[in-house]
Amino acid sequence: MSLTLEQLNTANAADALQLLDGLYEHSPWIAEQALAQRPFRSLAQLKHALAQVVRTAELDAKLALIRAHPELAGKAMVAQSLTAESTNEQNKAGLTQCTPEDFERIQQLNTAYNERFGFPFILAVRGPRGAGLSKKEIIDTFARRLDNHPDFEVAEALRNIHRIAEIRLADKFAAEPVLGNDAWDWSEKLAEHSDPGFAEKGQLTVTYLTDAHRACAQRISHWMRDCGFDDVEIDAVGNVVGRYRPATDGARYLMTGSHYDTVRNGGKYDGRLGIFVPMACVRELHRAGKRLPFGIEVIAFAEEEGQRYKATFLGSGALIGHFNPAWLDQKDAEGITMRSAMEHAGLCIDDIAKLQRDAAQYLGFVEVHIEQGPVLNELDLPLGVVTSINGGVRFIAEMIGTASHAGTTPMDRRRDAAVAVAELALYIEQRAAKDGDSVGTIGLLNVPGGSINVVPGRCQFSLDLRAPTDPQRDALVSDVLDELARIAQRRGLRYTLEESMRAAAAPSAPAWQHHWERAVDALGVPVFRMPSGAGHDAMKLHEIMPQAMLFVRGQNSGISHNPLESTTNNDIQLAVDAFTQLLHQLAEEQHA
């Protein structure tokens, strides 16, 4: 019989501790301290309490916890002395049936890892779906993490220990994240489509209106119909639009969604998670035969990344009347114009202007998105409420000095363009840090025609400066450009500077941000507020209606725009549950 929260909350201290036995290998102190916080409203609250006990523990206790775990496919497995939980997990990952070659490779990695870090390699081998990683995935992760900094690897080991405990806890409570599994599976299946040149390498790349892109649109549209959407169409720019009608004709709609295109060699969840989470919610409404006092419009935006053409946010921009007809004449790397690509895809270019939405017909726009950063991952938090999408300014610049002989030019006589840019980069790092949530990056740095024995006479570089509000962004830009001028003058250099992009910040509408906060709190998860450093489709809809976003924790330090981008079925389930809570809140408001 599975455990219930009521049983855990009402049991005496000794019995409660016994009920949680085995969550953390040979470390009952974690459950013991967490149980002092009873009663728990949800499993999510219990998980957080357990994680916080470890988070606030001394380093020696953390290391002891890590060292309490067995090596993967190690001596304990061979001697069959693993705990029942570890045996089950290593068996599900196929580690108990290693080939001699796999076993030898893992032993080599175990030895190298222990020598480098002084503790065993910890990996939640049941993986983000809970079904088990392949031996190749395990070995590849093992080898990759050998390069981590020791402090980082301690934290990564603990994060994997928490994931192991989360899965074990779900087993004890028979808490299967059914909707999280479905959304995770949709993401996996959609990732089967990838552009030529990348598909052959096992890489995910879906750019605007390629065959893979159109296949994704068809698949999403079929899934929307299966979920019970009343109307599904692929519109004039390739957006997939699903509408679930309200209980009463003429009522307004809630708009939600995200993009299904990807960067080159990207991840499976960027954008797509924001399509599948509301799809799962609509499917559950349909299965229950329930209509809300408002409709739900889920939009899978066709283009957000600007990878094939220089037309970022094309999908969401078209909905607010920001489709620029001049884009139609842009050419991709193969010389194909956007107009030709649209015509080949069967899209009706003349209908693009008709896509503009009347904001009066909508309650607002909400978007669920993987965080694309390390913050939630580091804090052991599954969800984050977005306060604002950062505004940003980008520049393309060049520092110009004098190329001279590296051996004969004294250090105090040089006009080194690259060193000047390096000095600026260090200033940006310090200046952005003063704000706490501003960020600045020199992502492109090039010495054209550079040589190992020549002082750089030119250095081409980029500037990317972002902040949660426009005044904060503008102050950062002003300070950085002033410092650029000072550096150039002091070093006897000159520079060119061209602004290539300026985007306004998009603060979350307070009432809508509060909806997300209430939804997260209802799940027993701490409400954590954070800005979004990345741009999102919500930025475009922000221009005509209130918007607010919810972030979902990413795995692997929250990396995104990368094949390692990942999240778990449990975190996706919490996102679906939070979205459902938001729908209930809106329904109550409409009835009031």
Description of the molecule:
With 592 residues, this protein is an alpha+beta fold. The protein contains 21 helices and 16 strands. It has helices spanning 5-10, 13-19, 28-34, 43-55, 59-67, 75-78, 84-92, 100-117, 135-145, 150-173, 178-190, 211-227, 273-287, 314-319, 338-344, 375-379, 417-435, 470-491, 510-522, 537-541, 569-591, and strands at residues 231-234, 240-244, 253-259, 295-301, 362-370, 383-389, 391-400, 404-405, 439-441, 445-446, 454-455, 458-467, 494-503, 506-507, 529-532, 547-552. Strands 1, 2, 3, 4, 5, 6, 14, 15 and 16 form a 9-stranded mixed beta sheet that branches. Strands 7, 9, 10, 12 and 13 form a 5-stranded antiparallel beta sheet that branches. Helix 5 packs across helix 10 (150-173) and helix 12 (211-227) runs parallel beside helix 13 (273-287). The longest helix has 24 residues, at 150-173. The protein is globular and about 75 Å long.
Question: What is the topological layout?
Answer:
Blueprint: H1 5-10, H2 13-19, H3 28-34, H4 43-55, H5 59-67, H6 75-78, H7 84-92, H8 100-117, H9 135-145, H10 150-173, H11 178-190, H12 211-227, E1 231-234, E2 240-244, E3 253-259, H13 273-287, E4 295-301, H14 314-319, H15 338-344, E5 362-370, H16 375-379, E6 383-389, E7 391-400, E8 404-405, H17 417-435, E9 439-441, E10 445-446, E11 454-455, E12 458-467, H18 470-491, E13 494-503, E14 506-507, H19 510-522, E15 529-532, H20 537-541, E16 547-552, H21 569-591
Parallel strand pairs: 3-4, 3-5, 5-16, 6-15
Antiparallel strand pairs: 1-2, 2-4, 6-14, 6-16, 7-12, 7-13, 8-11, 9-12, 10-12
